[in-house]
Amino acid sequence: MRIITYNVNGIRAALNKNLAGWITAAAPDILCLQEIKADTDQIPLEVFEKLGYHHFWFPAQKKGYSGVAILSRPKPDDVEAGMGIEAYDNEGRFIRADFGDLSVVSVYHPSGSSGDERQAFKMQWLADFQSYVTELRQKRPKLVLSGDYNICHRPIDIHDPIRNATVSGFLPEEREWMEQFLAQGYTDTFRHLNKDPHHYTWWSYRANARRNNKGWRIDYNMTTENLSNEIAKARILPEAVHSDHCPVLLELNGY
Questions:
Q1: How far is residue 159's CA from residue 209's CA, in Å, rounded to a whole number?
Q2: pLDDT tens, 29-83?
Q3: Cα end-to-end distance, the chain, whole Å
Q4: Phi (first) and psi of residue 77, to 5 degrees
Q5: Residue 146: what are its φ and ψ, rounded to 5°?
Q6: Parallel, antiparallel or unpaired: strands 142-148 and 186-188
């Protein structure tokens, strides 16, 4: 199974940059999207149907903000939008699709970069997200948690760890959360296969950051550890340029 996660920073803008052609070439079985920034009545859904995908959307209540989606070639057995927590579900941050014994989630973790209030919201979200997926694992033990986590885990995951040490997304408490989250039985699939530096998934639009590869690795395909032996391929796809993020690929054997 070929799973790709992609923060498109606006689905309509990405479609105008030939996202559909890229999907055809990349050929994911499951595509997890974040920051769709649109309601379903604003999205040309027939584009995805013509490409052969079932599609499931969970937009934010606020117009032009956040929102997640899952596109899949196989028809899921079940789809659940939201976590049952109003503050998060209003922002369209979590959607899950079940395929046999495998569950795939598209998740968009909050950013705390706009100030202390949103940073506090982010830290509360991280605690609640972890509690939610811990409980979810009791009934759905094989999870793929794909999306934009808005956290760089370690210095290798950011171009300038010194200057960014006090910046949201690389704060000590965020990195500690990531460390203990992984220790609870999750695998960072990219790092599982690739230990090299200078691999990023997001670049600022400023100062030619992408051209100079001054980026952050904040997009992940996380899996429960019981899937570790099934990880066949994990790659970052920086050649895709529909967004300030790029897609991240995971291939699983046995599905």
A1: 10
A2: 999 999 999 999 999 999 999 999 999 999 999 999 999 999 999 999 999 999 9
A3: 5
A4: -75, -30
A5: -105, 135
A6: unpaired
Number of C-beta neighbours around residue 16 at 10 A = 10
Residue 79 in contact with residue 56, Cβ under 8 Å?
yes
Which residue type occupies 150?
N
- With beta carbons less than 8 A apart as the criterion, state whether 126 and 109 touch: yes
Catalytic residue among 29, 148, 157, 188: 148
Q: How confident is the model at residue 216 (pLDDT cuts 50, 70, 90)?
A: very high
Three-state secondary structure readout of the chain: CEEEEEECCCHHHHHHCCHHHHHHHHCCCEEEEECCCCCHHHCCHHHHHHCCCEEEEECCCCCCCCCEEEEECCCCCEEEECCCCHHHHCCCCEEEEEECCEEEEEEECCCCCCCHHHHHHHHHHHHHHHHHHHHHHHHCCEEEEEEECCCCCCHHHECCCCCCCCCCCCCHHHHHHHHHHHHCCEEEHHHHHCCCCCCCCEECCCCCCCCCCCEECCEEEEEEHHHHHHEEEEEECCCCCCCCECCEEEEECCC
The answer to whether residue 148 is catalytic is yes
Residue 126 half-sphere exposure toward CB, CA atoms < 13 A: 23
For residue 80, the cross-strand partners are 96
Q: Are 151 and 107 in contact (CB under 8 A)?
A: no
User: What pLDDT, on the 0 to 100 scale, is given for residue 38?
Assistant: 98
With cut-offs at 50, 70 and 90, classify the pLDDT of residue 202.
Answer: very high
